[in-house]
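Figure-free illustration: sequence to structure, shown twice.
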Amino acid sequence: MAVSYKLIPSINPGSRDKKKVLLRPSVVINEIITPDVFLEKFSQYKRFSKANIVHFMYSLQEFLLQELKEGNIVQTGAIGTFFPLVTTKKEKTKGAKNTISNNFEFGINYRPSLEMKKEIVGAELERITA
């Protein structure tokens, strides 16, 4: 099955010519795989029991969070790399423009493996005209 996309209009915010409309590709989402559907499909695909998959997923989450909270980068190999990220919160006040406060947020960044990138680049694309 091919990945479907369509071209949708997008106004260039940096352009002075408001009449010029650019087209950008947008993926057409077929369905959202819920956790229950994920477990059902994956257990049939790899012959793991649903309980084992759930246990593994929660164990992986717990392990990743623990390592990331310690400031470690986790390279999983097949899935990719997870690393901690710190950003600043922008607060809007009535009297000033966007100001950066001393409030920092901790986050998680993910970079897929090269194998995953190569596989997804090779996916078939099908344009939908609407």
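We now fold a second protein in the same way, so the two outputs can be compared directly.
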Amino acid sequence: MMTDTEKSTVLSAIRQILYCAGCFGVAFLQHAIAAVCKEKTFDENGILENLQLGELLLACALFLCVSFCRKNFHKLSVVFASLCIFAACRELDSFFDDHIPLIGWKFAFLFIALAVVYALKNWRQTREELFNFFRHPSFPMMCCAITVIIPVAQCIGHRSFVVNVLQVEHVGSIKEFIEESIETAGYFILICSAIELFFPPANQTNN
């Protein structure tokens, strides 16, 4: 017979295994899309870009749900949702650049500014939620997502790096292939981080 803590630990381990399996699923989904779309796989407004947009919007919706369902992450989840909206606008940069004069997609920085103001205005509760988050399994998962999305996808897929390695000037499609495929996986890990926030840590099953 397992204790409540042991049962919660087993369920947490199962979720982590499912998250890992989901990452494999995202990778194989990209393989399947590429088999159909070929060189158009990573085109602007293409299926992969729309998939990334869908991932970010889903993450945003999940964080908002957490905000309503888990009172110990109410303020912080709103901030995370705002950051997801910012990233979604960044994915739609070409659309906003065409339809919003002068500033283009950069209007999305307003979401970050509002999130910062919201967090500071409610700083006492935000501070408490931050420490709860740092102790929660979702925190290392979010760190992993950010690591994959920014230093790995952006830096490994950086044009100058690709040019230096391949010694060719026209590397646009290769750059997109590296950057966008890794970003897609990173956004999925972000979704997993949001899902994990619905569950209390294994040692706090009564929260």
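Summary for the second example: The mean pLDDT is 91.
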